[in-house]
Amino acid sequence: MTALAQKHFNLPSSTDPLQMYKDTLYLTQISQAMCIKSETEHYRRLQSTIVDGEGHTMGALYWQLNDIWQAPTWASIEYGGKWKMLHYYAKNFFAPVLASGMVQDKQLYVYVITDVQDLQNCKLRINIHKWDTLDKPVHTITTQQFNQSHQSAIVQYKNSLDDLIKPSGCSDKAKNCFLTFEVLSSTSEVISPVNPLFLYSFNEASGLAKPRFMAKVAQKSPNVFTIHLTTDHVAPFTWLETPGIRGRFSDNGFVMVESAVIVVFYAWESTTTTDIQNAITVTSLMNIYE
Question: What is the reported pLDDT for 58?
Answer without folding.
Answer: 81
